[in-house]
Specification:
Distance between the termini: 29 Å
Largest sheet: 7 strands, mixed
Number of helices: 8
Strand content: 15-25%
CATH superfamily: Spore Coat Polysaccharide Biosynthesis Protein SpsA, Chain A
Length: 236
């Protein structure tokens, strides 16, 4: 079984909108719904868990009802941090997930679905235990100091920007979250960070789409201008 945890429990305060960014509607449809619709059509995904901001679960349910979901789907309330939310999602399937089952985490602030990349991530997880899509770096990359001056050139072949999804074997990732204390859950900002801290290898798979992350208003404007011409061209 391959589970997808669609992570959308955040508040999105940096965007400055009247609602968390994952629930902003574009052409009358919330951002998360575009992602959900695409994953619903992916044969490699067997079950979907939406980890939602608890104040928006009724809204999420309404949009699920509007979409003909082919796969088992459930909604779980998120926690106070992303890691707490991941743990809530993992706990929701802990009574049925088998050791070799795979869990993918897709952050809804990444408004795309890389179908080929997702398949390759799943295959890499089977071999290594953990994997993530990543945007490889092709521009010159610098390190700068606190005053904003460049201090050195960093070899770009050593760097990759995290993309969605990342994933793990359930038997390896769930015990880590289940055994973590509140402090560790607050400090760890991603599943990959948690996995590396506990010795899980993470294989990077190059992302086949632009790795857009909606954080600030200009990110949202880029998405609006490209949603139907690039990111979800065949899903309109």
């Amino acid at each position: 079984m391959n589970y997808l945890l669609l992570m959308m429990g955040g508040k999105g305060t940096r965007l400055g909108a009247d609602r968390p960014k994952q629930y902003i509607e574009i052409d009358g449809i919330p951002i998360f719904h575009y992602i959900l619709k695409s994953y619903n059509l992916l044969e490699c995904i067997d079950e979907i868990v939406i980890v939602s901001n608890k104040m928006w679960t009724d809204y999420v349910q309404k949009w699920i009802d509007n979409l003909e979901i082919k796969k088992p789907i459930s909604i779980v309330s998120g926690g106070k941090t992303r890691s707490h939310s991941v743990y809530n999602g993992l706990k929701s399937i802990s009574n049925k997930a088998k050791d070799d089952d795979i869990v993918l985490l897709h952050d809804a602030t990444h408004p795309y679905v890389d179908e080929e990349g997702t398949i390759r991530v799943i295959e890499a997880i089977k071999e290594y235990g953990g994997a993530t899509l990543g945007a490889y770096q092709y521009d010159t990359v610098y390190r700068m100091n606190e005053e904003g001056f460049i201090t050195e050139v960093i070899p770009r072949q050593e760097l990759v920007a995290g993309a969605s999804p990342e994933g793990f074997k359930f038997s390896e990732i769930f015990p880590i979250y289940d055994g973590a204390d509140d402090e560790e859950l607050e400090q760890m900002t991603s599943g990959g960070a948690m996995a590396l801290e506990h010795g899980i290898k993470m294989k990077t798979i190059e992302c086949n789409v632009i790795n857009l992350k909606i954080t600030y208003p200009h990110d949202l404007e880029i998405f609006k201008k490209t949603i139907h011409s690039y990111f979800f061209e065949s899903k309109k």
